Amino acid sequence: MTDGLWNVLSQNSAFARWICDFTAVPEGERTILHWFFLQEHSKHVMVEWEREATALMSLVRGRAMRERHGHELMAVVDDLRERSPDAERIWASGTDLLVQGPSRPMLFREPGHTDPDRPDDEDHHVRLTITTLAPVRMGDHHRLLAFLLPEDHTAPAAPSGPCPVCPPG
Q1: What is the tens place of the pLDDT at every residue in 32-57?
Q2: d(CA 147, CA 7)
Q3: Among 41, 58, 63, 129, fewest CB within 10 Å belongs to which?
C-alpha cells in the first residue's frame, strides 16, 4: 500500500521478494520514487526500466500539478533530481503527461535472475499485471498496488542471498 507521495506503507512477502523489501530501506526513502531512481536494483528488476521510469515521472508531474499537496511531491522530486542523474534527465526531458487506467502490464525479471547485462535471460521475464486500487473518498490518497502473476506462471524458488550484480548495502 502506498500513499499519495508513493511512500510504501505496507507490503507482503511476495512484493519484498519480487520488488524490494522496504522494511530494510531507511525510513525517509521508503518510496517507489526513491526505489526507481536511487536503487540500482530497480534497473535489474524492471526489464523496461527507462520506459517505466519515464511513465512514473509523467504520473508524478501530473499529480504534482493537480493536487493540493503537490509542493510535498515536488520536494521529493527536487531531492531525487539532485541525487540521481537519471531522475534529472527524465524530469528535464519534459515527459508528456500519462493517463493510465487502473491496470497495466509491466515486464519484470524473476527474483534471482536480475542481471540486465544478460540478453539471453528472456525466459526469466514475467509480464505482471499491476492493478492500482484507489479510494473514491475525498482526501484519502492511499493506494493499494496489486502485482498479479500470469495464471499459468509457477513462482520460482526464493533466491538465496542478495542480487548478485548489485553492490552490497
Answers
A1: 999 999 998 899 888 889 988 988 88
A2: 17
A3: 129
